[in-house]
Design a protein that fits this description.
heterodimer, A: about 240 residues, alpha/beta, Rossmann fold, 2 domains, six-stranded mixed sheet, four-stranded antiparallel sheet, about 35% helix, B: mainly alpha
């Protein structure tokens, strides 16, 4: 049975370099999947393809039953993206940023007012809604970035190294918010931070040189050390190559 | 159209708050007007000379001020990866382009409307048929913004964008600049709207062709 994300025979090449090779991946609704791998393994390329920002060279990708090549606009409606970049406008206020993105997702003014209020409360930003983004701390920006990605109530959250630049407190806040929301959405996170994400995820996919080298359910791993050992082997093989 | 207007309003709101681009464009226009009026001070008493020089002078100021403005059109989008976030929204790339054209045009029109009284004062010259002049400015600016917005997107990720943009932009603007300057010259010489119909047709045709082409090409520009 195909899941909410179904990838079959996916290939992507850039100017003769193969970034992804014959990727087969099926992600069920509600799963929390982390993708790890050495630099240049193709993690971000895979995420960008799922975000409809990069076109695959061949293969098929279906998200919630919709073909990526045929319905990219429909797919964008059910996807939320979080990156190490905040995707926020520095010269607009917290509320203006959320309102702008909400309008881009086709939300009405009434829906938006309610949703913004809800999200600001959840992110503990309700007293900063009039502040310009340029005056916020990195942690506050990341919380606002999560609010931005959830403004249209997406079914899938795609995250690309979201821990970059976060201090300990901000990383903990980030985890709390993601865990609160991960019950309602399917999460696919590209990360290098195994310690932080191990307890949150249901499944770990390891990419190496554009191929899936391991796809493990977390329940099949006894401890984070075991996962680290598996990952170290992949990393060493890549390094020796 | 709603998405395009949201993008335009967002751009204008951020710009009117910081006034970074607007101030640069206004100062640039003012400096050009002052330099030209000083260098031509000995002929400023002859209105026939000003009539012949003014169309070129006005459009030199507008084109260069516009280039300064349009080169900054995507700066806020590059910061924090906002351009990528815009592409992630469920809107057509053409809607993003249209929004950018509207905001770029609005900024240029603000500068141009402010520059006309400055021109009248510095050149001691009373412009006849002001509504016709504003119509020419509106149509010429639409063409400038249509092409400039596309080229600014094309050059935004290049290291030499400040050099690349004018090099690409000015030659592509010539087909709209020539009829625009001729129409301005005719109006300043006292002609009415009916004497500039052929120039207006050319400008409108340029606007439609380049706006349509740019809308189609914009998606590929962003992917590149």
């Amino acid at each position: 049975m195909s899941g909410i994300i179904s990838i079959k025979g996916l290939n992507k090449s850039f100017a003769g370099h193969t970034a992804l090779h014959n990727i087969e991946l099926n992600i069920e609704k509600g799963e929390f999947v982390i993708i790890i791998g050495p630099n240049g393994a193709g993690k971000t390329t895979l995420l960008k393809i799922l975000e409809t920002l990069v076109r695959p060279s061949s293969g098929s990708v279906e998200i919630s039953g919709m073909s990526l090549s045929k319905s990219p606009v429909q797919i964008r409606k059910i996807i939320g993206a979080i990156s190490h970049e905040s995707y926020l406008y520095n010269d607009l206020t917290v509320e203006e940023n959320l309102r702008f993105y909400g309008k881009m997702y086709g939300l009405s003014n009434n829906e938006l007012s309610l949703r913004i209020q809800q999200l600001l409360k959840q992110m503990h930003l309700e007293y900063s809604y009039m502040d310009r983004v340029s005056t916020l701390s990195r942690g506050m920006k990341q919380r606002l970035s999560i609010a931005r990605s959830l403004i249209h109530d997406p079914e899938i959250l795609l995250m690309d190294e979201p821990y970059t630049g976060l201090d300990l407190q901000s990383a903990c806040d980030f985890e709390r918010i993601i865990l609160e929301n991960s019950k309602k959405v399917t999460v696919l996170m590209v990360t290098h931070d195994l310690d932080r994400t191990y307890n949150m995820c249901d499944r770990v996919v390891i990419l190496r040189s554009g191929k899936i080298s391991s796809d493990i359910q977390r329940k099949d791993i006894n401890s984070i050390e075991e996962l680290k050992n598996i990952y170290s082997k992949v990393f060493m093989e890549e390094h020796e190559k | 159209m709603r998405s395009s207007l949201s993008i335009a309003v967002k751009d204008l709101r951020a710009e009117l708050r910081t006034k970074q681009v607007l101030n640069s464009m206004l100062i640039f226009t003012l400096v050009v007007m002052v330099i030209l009026s000083l260098s031509l001070s000995d002929v400023l008493s002859e209105s026939s000379v000003i009539e012949r020089l003014a169309p070129g002078l006005i459009w030199i100021a507008f084109v260069f001020a516009g280039t300064v403005g349009i080169s900054r059109a995507y700066v806020s989008e590059i910061e924090n990866g906002c351009l990528e976030a815009l592409r992630l929204c469920p809107v057509d790339c053409a809607a993003i382009y249209t929004g950018k054209v509207i905001s770029g045009m609005c900024l240029m029109l603000i500068v141009e409307i402010a520059a006309i009284p400055v021109f009248i004062v510095f050149f001691n010259y009373n412009i006849p048929h002001l509504p016709e002049i504003f119509l020419i400015i509106l149509l010429g600016t639409a063409g400038f913004s249509a092409v400039g917005t596309l080229l600014a997107a094309l050059s935004v990720n290049t290291r030499t964008r400040e050099i690349m943009l004018p090099v690409l932009l000015i030659p592509l603007l010539l087909p709209v600049l020539i009829p625009t300057i001729i129409a301005t010259a005719k109006i300043l010489a006292g002609d009415g709207i009916f004497q500039i119909i052929s120039e207006l047709r050319l400008i409108v045709l340029y606007d439609i062709v380049f706006f349509t082409l740019a809308r189609l090409l914009f998606e590929h520009t962003l992917e590149g």
